[in-house]
Specification:
CATH superfamily of the largest domain: Histidine kinase-like ATPase, C-terminal domain
Number of strands: 20
Strand order of the largest sheet: 10-12-13-15-14
Strand content: 15-25%
Helix content: 40-55%
Number of helices: 21
CATH class of the largest domain: Alpha Beta
Structural class: alpha/beta
CATH architecture of the largest domain: 2-Layer Sandwich
Length: 628
């Protein structure tokens, strides 16, 4: 095998190599700092030809600021003593422009250790410096941005969960200053329950495995108060994939949650209101139709009673039928009370006197195991309501209270004035209601009583009476602590426009009763037939009409003393018929028979009314009340 020997590079070859390099400025300095060689790279960076710099002091490349600091001489001293000097800084080109240089100065020693000079290598790293400055500026801006954000808590945590920085948003939301929290474990922001269940560690584990963790939950401020937070934890990794920590973003969404809950509550209330309105419309319509049926039943029973022989068995059966129909009428009144369509005579009511007048009835209705405690202040003002409907409401509430105390107990009835309202309270010490039952207690047909023990319309009726009186019904109850039902009724005042009826000192003489010619109008044939029969049984002449249009036709054909008309008729109501009659036949009395107070504003409100179902005696009295 032939060996090849490589000759060592000559000094000339080294010189040529150095002079050919253009990316670095390489040149020699004498021990005093004078330039003794100059390569192509130095020429390219600094712009000087070789003859322009040879023999010149290398300080010519330094800025005035560095010259003032004595940097060139310092660089040579460090290189000579330490064996090397390395730095970065601004240098000057021939044209006076500056560039950022990375410079290294190495001493050159002789074999005897004497300093022969220096080798200086300079590189133009202006672009890199510009990039570093831009990066530093960007990082500083980002840091300032993060630290300045106040709506979000932005901070870093170590792989072990230790907080490493803290922005203004974190301080505002959580209450800790950076000095108080940096270096602490982030689990201190979690609730005691979450810490006990290991929630902080699970959050980091999910972020570590999937890259991100996101959740909403309760967090704790420095002062111990809780807030609802939306939390995002992102895993931060270096270029080789190693986990270096986590970025955590927390936002306080307590207010948003509250607004959302209020919106949901408002939506539920709207839906409930719409549902109750729909049920009220349906209930009012059903009750009106049921009233017509009861009108036919009760009037027929009343007329039949006059024609039956004196047979005790038959009379007992007839009375049973009448009582059943009356119970149906009471149920209808409850339905109409819920629908706010019952006919109410609003007037000042002395609540204390009303309750005291009901004591005997309450005692017999509630039974011996129930004691009634009544307490009213002496200066309680009168309240606005219908006394008959209010009495029914009180009876209903006390019966409910009795049913809540199967083992007996005390019902306390009291009242007080609260601003512009009289607050009538009926309290028991019974079983009470939980929140779910209490929320539905006023719904129509809802009852907790057994089958056949309640219609579910009692509280709905009371609620309707209270609202039609201008007040409200409030219920408070807890399981095992009893129930308090409060009727809030407006205080009767002179400016309310409601007058207390003056007592009648002298009873007016009843007008001479004569045979009347009556036009009976109703679109329900059963009611029309029974009304006509009762009128004829009273001795009057009756002409029937099944619509307002037919009634007007009859009025054109003949003369009448009185018109008795149903109100809720298609195409033209009874009130509208009365207006036409008043215009064409002035002075003609019109009596409106209606199942509920639904007459329109204006003249219709002043029309005499007869509530269905009515008896023959009530019909008789109503006729002679308006016919004089």
């Amino acid at each position: 095998m032939t060996s090849i020997e490589l000759a060592a590079p000559s000094a000339e070859q080294y010189r040529l190599l150095v002079e050919a390099i253009t990316d670095y400025g390489i040149y020699m300095l004498t021990p005093e700092g004078l330039v003794s060689s100059w390569n192509a790279g130095a020429k390219r960076f600094k712009g000087y030809e070789e003859h322009e710099v040879l023999g010149k002091h290398f300080s010519m490349f330094y800025t005035p600021e560095d010259l003032a600091r004595g940097l060139p001489d310092h660089a040579l001293q460090v290189a000579a003593s330490a064996g090397r000097f390395e730095t970065q800084g601004w240098r000057l080109r021939k044209d006076g422009t500056r560039f950022w240089a990375h410079a290294v100065i190495d001493p050159i020693m002789g074999q005897d250790g004497a300093l022969l000079g220096f080798a200086k290598i300079t590189r133009d790293i202006t672009d890199r410096r510009r990039a570093e400055i831009e990066l530093a500026r960007s990082q500083d801006m980002f840091r300032r941005l993060v630290l300045g954000v106040t709506d979000y808590a932005l901070y870093m945590i170590s792989p072990d969960g230790i907080v490493t920085n803290w922005n203004a948003g974190a301080e505002r939301i959580k209450g800790y200053t950076p000095e108080e929290i940096v270096g602490q474990h982030f689990e201190r922001f979690y609730t005691q329950e979450d810490r006990a269940s290991g929630a902080p560690a699970r959050a980091l584990e999910v972020a570590r495995e999937t890259g991100k963790f996101e959740k909403e939950g309760w967090r704790v401020r420095k002062d111990g108060t809780r807030f609802m937070a939306h939390v995002v934890i992102d895993a931060i990794r270096d270029p080789d994939g190693s986990l270096i920590g986590f970025a955590k973003i927390t936002r306080d969404i307590t207010e948003r949650m509250r607004v959302q809950q209020e919106l949901e509550t408002a939506r539920e209330q709207l839906l409930q209101s719409q549902k109750m309105e729909a049920i009220g419309q349906l209930t009012g319509g059903v009750a009106h139709d049921f009233n017509n049926l009861l009108m036919a039943v009760l009037s027929s029973l009343e007329l039949l009673r006059k024609r039956l022989p004196d047979d005790p068995q038959a009379l007992r059966l007839l009375e049973n039928a009448r009582q059943g129909a009356e119970r149906g009428a009471a149920l209808t009144r409850s339905m109409l009370a819920f629908a706010r369509r019952q006919d109410m005579a609003i007037q000042p009511v002395d609540v204390a006197d009303l309750v005291r007048s009901m004591q005997e009835m309450l005692s017999s209705s509630l039974g011996a195991m129930i004691a009634v405690d009544i307490a009213f202040p002496s200066n309680l003002p009168p309240a606005l309501s219908d006394p008959n409907h209010l009495a029914a409401a009180i009876l209903n509430l006390t019966v409910n209270a009795r049913d809540a105390m199967p083992g007996g107990g005390t019902i306390r009835i009291s009242a007080s004035q609260d601003g512009e309202f009289v607050r009538l309270s009926i309290a028991d010490s019974g079983e009470g209601m939980d929140e779910a039952v209490l929320a539905r207690a006023r719904e129509p047909f809802f009852t907790t009583k057994g089958v056949g023990k309640g219609t579910g319309l009692g509280l709905s009726m009371v609620h309707g009476i209270a609202e039609q009186s201008g007040g409200r019904l409030e219920l408070r109850s807890k399981p095992g602590e009893g129930t308090v039902a409060e009727l809030w009724l407006p205080v009767a005042q002179a400016e309310a426009g409601v007058q207390t009826p003056a007592p009648v000192a002298v009873v007016a003489a009843e007008p001479e009763q004569r045979r009347l010619r009556v036009l009976a109008v109703d679109d329900d044939y059963l009611v029309l037939m029974n009304t006509a029969t009762m009128l004829e049984d009273l001795g009057h002449e009756v002409v029937e009409a099944t619509s307002a249009a037919e009634a007007l036709s009859r009025l054109e054909e003949a003369t009448f003393d009185l018109v008795i008309s149903d109100h809720a008729m298609p195409k033209m109501t009874g009130a509208q018929l009365a207006e036409v009659v008043a215009g064409k036949w002035p002075g003609m009395p019109v009596l409106i028979a209606t199942g509920y107070a639904e007459l329109p504003e204006g003249a219709g409100r002043r029309l005499p009314k007869l509530s269905k179902p009515f008896s023959q005696n009530q019909l008789h009295d109503a006729i002679w009340e308006i016919v004089r």
